Amino acid sequence: MGNIWSLDLEIEVYKWSSAEYPQEYAVVYTCVNDKSKFSIFRLSVRPEKVLLRLADSLCDDHPIRVHMELIAERDNNYRYFNYRLVRVVEAGTTYDPSSTNDDKVSFITILCHKRASSYSVTRPGENKMTWKVEHSSCCQGFLAELSFHVNIECHKVNGLSVKFRGPFKFKAPRIITESLLERSTPHIQRQVNGEPPNSINAFVESAFTGNEYILFQAEGRGNSGGTEASAQGTRVTVNNTAAQFHGNGNGSSYEKCFVVMNYKAP
User: Is the pTM of the predicted complex or chain greater than 0.85?
Assistant: First the structure.
């Protein structure tokens, strides 16, 4: 079909609650002329865990999968929350260490010859509590961009919470911003109280094998300090439906968070 990005997209934002996650969000881009081509970003939130999942099939020859989780647990006295683990598993993107600084990690992919997809993670600043995630899709010769971002905060009493904003439309050089859900355009936009269609959810919940990047791991329960970027590019299999990881990892097991990892020496 050529450059899928030249076609109109439906843009929908879903919001609901589930038994496992009190807060659930999803952003879905769907090709107007071919409903089988879509991209879904799903955000699931509870005090102990934030799960961010991206599945993109707008280009048949280059699907993208990103699975990111942030886990928090209480200290030794079971009073205050601290981050325990932050990691990303990706398939179909390009991780370029040369484009990564001390604060930001980016996974960038060129699709359909004229479209770029970027998934960026920014580590906390001085407050040590807020992680930032941004997903952007550039199109029209990289002169226009769709973007949304999430701030994940860890409150010492209440645990993890998020602030979700977007999607927005930017025009080069990124000086004009407009909310796509607050204006009338040729695109079809709507905000839905409820879950995305089962066929779309099934894609983002399906298993995949990708490269794991550990961005932070606490040294032990109740310790706010930890190791950054301790394991890079390890191959793991993600079973999203059961929220489980299987494969080579860092030797840690988080049973309450349904995370199982086995270490294998290089």
Answer: no
